[in-house]
Amino acid sequence: xxxxxxxINYNTAPVAIRERLAFPAEILNQALQxxxxxxxxTEAAILSTCNRTEFYCELTDNNTNTLIDWIAQSQQIDPxxxxxYLYSYQGNQFIRHIFRVACGLDSMILGExxxxxxxKTAYQAAYEAGTLGKYLGKLFxxxxxxxxxxxTDTEIGSSPVSVAFAAVQLxxxxxxxxxxxxxxxxxxxxxxxxTARHLHQQGIGRIIIANRTYDKAHTxxxxxxxxxxxxxxxxxxxxxxxIVVSSTASQLPILGKGLxxxxxxxxxxxxxxxVDLAVPRxxxxxxxxxxxxxxxxxxxxxHTIDTNMNSRRQAAAQAEExxxxxxxxxxxxxxxxxxxxTIKDYRSQADMxxxxxxxxxxxxxxxxxxxxxxxxxxxxxxxxxxxxxxxIQIRAAGINERPDLxxxxxxxxxx
Length: 415
Known about the structure:
Layout: E1 2-9, H1 15-20, H2 25-36, E2 41-48, E3 52-59, H3 65-75, H4 79-82, E4 87-90, H5 91-102, H6 114-129, H7 134-153, H8 163-174, E5 182-186, H9 190-201, E6 206-211, H10 214-223, E7 227-230, H11 234-237, E8 243-246, H12 257-266, E9 272-276, E10 293-297, H13 298-366, H14 371-399, H15 403-412
Parallel strand pairs: 5-6, 5-8, 6-7, 8-9, 9-10
Antiparallel strand pairs: 1-3, 1-4, 2-3
Helix pairs in contact: 2-6, 5-7, 5-13, 6-7, 7-13, 8-9, 13-14
């Protein structure tokens, strides 16, 4: 039995290759069942994200060629096109790898939490497809326990390392309750989408999304129960915003000092928290001079991000130590499985001896033998039968000068 991980990720393969080896959720169940029909593969799970595709398998040997051939056939791709990008882990290295992936230590953004949810999705898909067995099933459970311990015992996920998350965390520090605030997001690109997602997760009261193309604003706003407006409508809605985050590709500022002065007046000088994530700037620098406006730029946040990344690196070192311990725990469980078979066989042998002798002396009781004498004979015979083979083996060890076996026997029987 060999546990292996075979895969590609953002470090080893370009997007063009990662796309061809991706397994969307709608085909995952069928793919897993087909994979398990492959010779030598007895358990299987597939983790497929935008940054990685990994195959976790139990093999009857340590040859990965069968798995590679299946991937090529399943995805209709020449093996020569993806083999150069593959990495493979077996045994201890595989266990450590899957723990590190789940903890975000192998992610593009160190310590990012989304990968753990994706790992749980991979486990659930394999469970529903019936492709998990004793070993991979147990490994996934250990993996989730290790990730939980890392999240609980270190600060790896507590510090924001994206400008969007940093902006939202800063807003949380300024406002006691985001549920009572309105956020105006300007733009409809990836950064604004991520900001909207973070705000929504933190319970923001209301989201307004403004964009040059109204349809894009509407599509994004609909995901978060928000309200879409065109850029031309900014002067009308700016006064509603307690939080403004802007990230567009405009070459000229979108919000000027005069517009903000008018909005502050409408708000009766209730403060506005603003974050300009655009380069060039979307918000005129002079806006920071206004008394009731708190303006931060991407450079202001970058210092926080750099500091937090250093904090995550320190936490990652702690996480590696936790993983070392967790790997040993799982290896201990694996080692115990070999002993489990021996224990089972030994117990079955003892049960067979007991049953044979019990039937023998029950017959004697039925023929009128004294019960006390029957019990005495049963106890004596059972003892002799149970120690007979071990006694012969220990005696043979002495004759063959095997003190190691004699010492092992004394340890096993606590003599």
